[in-house]
Amino acid sequence: MNTSDRISHLPASGEEYSGLAAEAVDAIEELSGVHPGYRRAHAKGICCRAFFRPSGLGMEFTTAAHLQEQQVDAVVRFSGSSTDPALADLLSPAKGMAVQFSLPDGGITNLVGVTIPVFFARTPESFIDIVRTAHRAQAGTLGTLELIKEITVHFSESKTSLLAVKRLKPPASYAESHYYCIHAYYMVNSAGRQQPVRFEWIPETGVRTLSAEDAAQQPEHYLEDELELRFKDESAIFQLVAVLGEEGDPTDDPTRAWPEDRRRIDLGRLHISEIIPEPEGLVMDPTAITSGIQLSDDPILNFRSAAYADSHHRRSEGR
Ligand code: HEM
């Protein structure tokens, strides 16, 4: 399938997923309980003020306003992946970094990353199936044969992601972690050329993790404490990298990485300077794109919009 074929097969909008989204959020609640007023995933988080200074190198690939030459403001939310807002940082291995850029025309666009390069489910349906299976396994209502069957069904799609989670070491800082935005998008330039892309955030000072001994010494919420201390002296800086997909690289499968040798473009630097209260109504929907960027045909990417809206609806009602 070539690039333009892929784009013409895009779902019309996230709305078609709204019933399935409620099922997904219900499944998460059944597995992990409800923490009223909080996000149904990545419940624990901290917002920061930032600005993004583009390098200008993105202009060849996209007309997106924040990837030209003009600096734009941004809000960043760092998070732990758990649904429990009180869980100790060490107990939720994967971390998130969601960035909302303020565009010159008053609009916004988001990029949402985590510290593993691929996701564990290929479609919304398999996401729900995996979460429900985990719940039944946890509740002890899944027979051995059924468990083996479920593991066999989903093992090949989940394997890379589960191994990546297993390999994660406790981060020394939210600011010294590498975040992957996982899904493919397209950058579209002024000639209308569509370039498949995956985005990554690379910490300017490198990745730093804690040894088991050091980790054991940390207070429960050490990542937030560390950021507060850091911002007294310096900003946290991340490079935004565009990884360029080539013919044959999957754009519809968040469980599969692209080959390591793909060309990488330095799109600019994000400077994060201080902790701020969470802006009202903040939803880091990864489908909130802008002119010059298009969604790929990844079913998980397209589904997330409805799932995040559902979670936002529940938490804004105090549920
Ligand atoms: C079927 C797939 C997925 C479902 C159902 C799902 C579900 C959710 C939900 C319900 C929230 C809370 C939204 C809110 O209340 O604002 C959330 C937040 C989040 N998710 Fe996902 N998610 C999925 C896939 C992913 C993937 C592939 C990533 C990797 C980039 C990811 C990273 C995050 C992050 C970083 C947050 C926190 C955003 C913030 O700080 O506001 N999720 N997810």
Automatic annotation (TrEMBL):
Membrane-spanning ranges: none
Protein name, UniProt field: Catalase-related peroxidase
Domain called Catalase core: residue spans: 5-319
PROSITE patterns in UniProt: CATALASE_3 (PS51402)
Record keywords: Heme, Iron, Metal-binding, Oxidoreductase, Peroxidase
Function comment: Has an organic peroxide-dependent peroxidase activity.
InterPro entries: Catalase (IPR018028), Catalase_core (IPR011614), Catalase_sf (IPR020835), Catalase_SrpA-type_pred (IPR024168)
Cofactors (names): heme
Pfam families: Catalase (PF00199)
Enzyme Commission number, as recorded: 1.11.1.-
Superkingdom: Bacteria
Organism of origin: Paenibacillus phytohabitans
GO function term, MF aspect, one: catalase activity
Assigned protein family: Belongs to the catalase family.
